[in-house]
Fold each of these.
Amino acid sequence: MLTRRSFLQSSAAAAALAASAGSARAETPGVTDTEIKIGQTMPYSGPASAYGVIGKADTAYFKMINEMGGINGRKINLISLDDGYSPPKTVEQVRRLVEEEKVAFLFNTLGTPPNLAIRQYLNDSKIPQLFVATGAATFSDPKHFPWTMGWQPNYQTEAKIFAQHILKTKPDAKIGVLYQNDGFGKDYLIGLKDGLGADHAGMVIKEASYETTEPTIDSQVVTLQGSGADVFLIAATPKAAAQAIRKSYDLGWNAVRYMTDVSQSIASVMKPAGLDKSKGVITAVYGKDPTDARWKDDAGFKEYAAFIANYMSPNDLIDSNAVYGFGASATMVQVLKQCGNDLSRENVMRQAANLKDLELPMGLPGLRINTSPDNFSPIRQMKLASFNGESWEQFGELLMG
């Protein structure tokens, strides 16, 4: 039987416990009983503005989830800010998101240089930097940066797959490489040379870099053609990639052209380059191409098409950047579902590193997302595809670099 004193003591203890529980919730900025506030930077302007569709798709996807009731009763509030693909601007915007907007974590911030500029700050602050929109291998380094995780296959993986294909189909190739002069482009050089191996390193006969601020890369393409290369690897973001495809065609350069998967958008690369001029370009894919008729009756494609019809514009349907945002956002939602009511930054990161055989609606058949505390590379399989003038035609099997 409780005395009045013991009753008051137990009531006080209960109140203290409730208060501590409330303060524990308050310790995760951006998380309330009704909301999860997350942040993002995206190049809605500047040289990489074609990627802005990814941010629009992320925003639209979370709107759809919120209209379905949110995650465990909480709505997702994505604050997506323009950084113009400029690292100093990224730093400024991320500090605003963390210190003023009080977001719980960062999601799908885009670009290799922008993400490198904020990675140390976020890791020092123990703020998740999840599913960064770049394939640079350095963002899958849990030992040194345990709060940062990639999403797409890394660039070195893709370049190794290209190298394997070149060795198999053109063992006497002379390779010319156009690459963006930063961590993104340099990763392709590393992966290509690793894939070729020491015995074949001499196959790369010419390299030409460009800065994102350059209005055109025509002179670099002319230089690469003049080297006598008969394989042309394009490690460039959309604007420069479209220029490289167009210029190489206009020069009458009959090299076999390989291009990074981050520039495979038909809407923002192949059409501006010229569909006829893009024929034969080879890339690597890990998702379903929305222009490929083989998927028209596929359940995953129908889910994607319904999302586009309800939350985006008809023009976005064929943009691979929209497919990218759709997949990355679905992965983020799965992580939040696994978190339950524990939305501490530690648990968000723990669940991101505990994805098991996750299948995405627009992922290739057989592709599964898996992560662990020592595996921060969610997607590691790709398939080669060739552009036929209208869509990407896949060939071969799922490969790992």
Amino acid sequence: MTDQTPRTYPQGVPSWIDARQPDPDAAQAFYGGLFGWDFEERLPPGVPGSYRIVSIDGHEVGAVASSDEPATWLTYIAVDDADAVARRVTELGGTAGPAEDAGPGGAAGRSVDCVDPRGAAFGLWQARARLGAQHVNAPGGWVFSDLRSTDPEQAIGFYEQLFGWQVSGIEEGPSAMVRLPGYGDHLAATSDPDIRERQAGAPEGFADVIGALDKLDAGADDWHVSFSVADRDGAAALAEQLGGRVLGSWDGFWTRAAELQDPQGATFRVTQFAPQDG
């Protein structure tokens, strides 16, 4: 990605995230301290609630929103027509709330809150001016999201029908990578022209990876976000200093990761790019 070429997201690629938080001020203190994020309120004065765009060096990462529900991170998937895809969600056994325009006159985009047939919440994002996350795959930025399920094969079937996703043979730690055929071609033609050369040693289909699929031993299905950090252990220690918790850690072939929980209860992952030799 370059400053001159914004990152765009074709239909079926996760494109945006926001944290739904009972106390946005507390969330801003925690995540701002952990990742160095800047925050900008986008709701007009006098409008109840809060929606704060998060950025690093002027490049958008996601948002923090006020919520009366328990704290969580929501992953949005890019669509060309939010209303049409929402109808398809319900046809496939999920649920979809009403479509809502974002920004004055809907200038930013159009969104729908959805729940898949196994209970995992996600969003649809039809981009207009807000194209999606721009600071990605770099410290403080979103890496990707995992679909976590006690029955991954059943869970992914819904998204295979909805978006054409495929589970690849690529694994990293506990995760199986999910790909959207053609996404690498889209990146090469737009915001990441050097992706093929940079990933010359990566497994076949790696450029098409759009997320991951994890097996849960117990609990409810969900979507789980990951952020890049320069130092996993340092980030985990800082999270604890800021009032969060470390839930666990693991080392994969490409990354070192830690599962964290923020002070209001939302869980997320931090990952350090640290490929093993040979």
Amino acid sequence: MPRTPRIGSVAVVVSSLALTTVTAFGGSASAATVVTVAKDGSGNFTTVQAAVDAAPSNGSGTYEVDIKPGTYRGTVSVASAKTHVTLKGLGSAADQVVIVENHAASSYGTQGSATVAVSASDFRAENLTFANDYDEAKNGSSQAVALDLNADRAVLNNVRVLGNQDTLLLWTASTSTVGRSYIRTSYVEGDVDFIFGRGTAVFDRSEIHSLSRGSSTNNGYVTAAATTNTNPYGFLFYRSTLTGNASAKSVYLGRPWHPSGDVNAVGQVLFRECTLGAHVRDDPWTDMSGFSWKTARFSEYTNTGAGAAVNANRPQLSASQAPSYTPARYLAGSDGWNPVY
């Protein structure tokens, strides 16, 4: 996707830990510590994890980690106490800063396989790539998470999230906890259930790319939502584009995930005003682990493109319902959070 310029930002790089002023996502100025990561030793740290570890615990000001171009292999964990951390790639495009590892759930468990795991609130990422390059062709199919957002009020802007099965996990600490993510002008790719979890997320003007698994009929599922039944908002794909190298009519938009058979996980997914590629099936929702997709909350609204259609297998949001299912409504929560721009 073309890079969207950062709006109203002032990038300040310092040679040592220092307090300076930057403009955060959305435009308002706030005190922030800015540090630099560079593999060649020209920054404050040589690894992203070391920079994150140096962030203050439960800080209220932004702690910005500016990352110079390069491939940074290894996992990164943003612990729950490391609030208000921003990871920002300094390259001219998101593919110039890559954080990557090749862990698979078969060895590490689902969440343990994540290249980047975020448990802290108010996390931000901009202009970089999170990837899990576990080799399915060589080692066999397995969950292999690139990014685990297990937090609230996360924002991704011009970020690529790359993997195969279970690429992006949107999770919460408990079924009664809300975890909101705003994913703007970004790119997510994968094949099986590659956007999944019980978190609340808005994909705004992003590209969702389905990879081929070599089948003519079933090349996977974009989503596997496990939204708690008391939460009206799961995943919203808004004015986004669904692309893929899979064969025509071979990819499902989603299926309902009930973790450990949880009957209170009633997935909510809406594709709204999106452009759907020819790889999307005419019957785009399907059952999972004995649970019918018809008991989930799956719908579409005014989609276009070769993969768009209206039929008995494609529930549509009504015009009267539409005002209640906007990016702002999904993200507002009880605190009125509104990162949309």
